[in-house]
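Hey all, quick one. A colleague (J.T.) asked me to put the FEJ job into the tracker so the inputs and the structure tokens live in one place instead of scattered across chat threads. No bug as far as I know, just bookkeeping. Sequence used:
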Amino acid sequence: GYFGKFGGQYVAELLIPPLKELEHALKHIVPTEAFQKEFSDYLKNYVGRESPLTHCPTLSKDLGFNLYLKREDLNHTGSHKINNVLGQALLAKHMGKKALLTETGAGMNGVATATAARALGMDCIVFMGAVDVERQSHNVRRMKLLGATVVPVESGSKTLKDAINEALRFWIKEQATYHYCFGTAAGPHPFPTLVREFQSVVGKEARRQILERTGALPHSVIACVGGGSNAIGIFSGFIDDPEVQLIGVEAAGTGEEGCTNSAPICLGTDGILHGQRTMLLQDDDGQILPSHSIAGGLDYPGVGPEHAHLNDCGRAIYVKVNDCQALNAFKALTRAEGIIPALESSHAVAYVLENKDEFPKDCNVIVNLSGRGDKDMDIVEQCTELF
Ligand SMILES: Cc1ncc(COP(=O)(O)O)c(/C=N/[C@H](C(=O)O)[C@@H](O)C(C)C)c1O
């Protein structure tokens, strides 16, 4: 369960049995034809895959090269999260579990898990930092409509990292009946591998689509990085094509020197959190620092271990974009192409718009549009100079 020196299973003894059970299921159930057929059927007929690869004519004209968007915002529930949680929910069912538990920050993972639970006739409990319950109320209403129990987490910084801690404690107690549907490509082994497996459909589709549309591989593939699942999903389709540049975009917060951010690869150090060795925002004693981003989905002080490794070995590069740049990209894409992106995805778009001279004229670039921006209306409207 390692990616270079990163990854592993740094958890309390009590968590080893359910993790071993999950490792066994990943090895013996996921590769079966029956499971793959059922999963593909749900992805096609329930999620609505495959997602389009949309060319952006107006932005491309300004940029001098072709910008394509992989439209994970068009999936059922509005983001890439559904790919992973459906795979995990199906697996949980095969493992005889009766209910799902998960964590959420932006709320998209919570909504996706509540949706998958309904589709498969399972109960669902979602742990969500009290701060996030406030700032992503649109998604809290959707989770409750879907019949999920939303547990506001009041401990620590009351955001995602605290929700994960509570969810792991709950799982220790309820492991016989609950499957922990981990929402991103992080956490103890086998979660980073399991989540990449279920998100890899994005990269497979994008590679076939770009070849069909342009007859060549893209110059670069760009995705925002919170825990790392949408990025690893699309990267996995191109990782064996060394000529394709992979760019992970972290959230720099306000961007001022020393400001609170969510950029553990760019600004953090090596450590242990949530059962994994990875890059983290931590003080000299290893205490996790609070993170910040205007995008709730990127507001996490850690990152999936595979990204820490891809950065270490240089196969992918990791950059950062601040709140204001993300908001400007949000507006640019909305007004230029009629697509309202999630603030998380806006970070990936912002990197292209802010660094256009780094891309050769007439090349082709794919940005993973991980989600839609409905949930962010209140946040964006507070930035009145935008509209
Ligand atoms: C639309 C959208 N785009 C990107 C992300 C970042 O999550 P990753 O793709 O796992 O890096 C997110 C993350 N959302 C999670 C959530 O909704 O719970 C997030 O807050 C945590 C699971 C990390 C998202 O909602």
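Adding what we noticed when we looked at it: The longest helix spans residues 191-214. Residues 79, 104-110, 160, 183-184, 224-231, 296-298, 300, 342, 344-345, 370-371 surround FEJ (CB under 6 Å).
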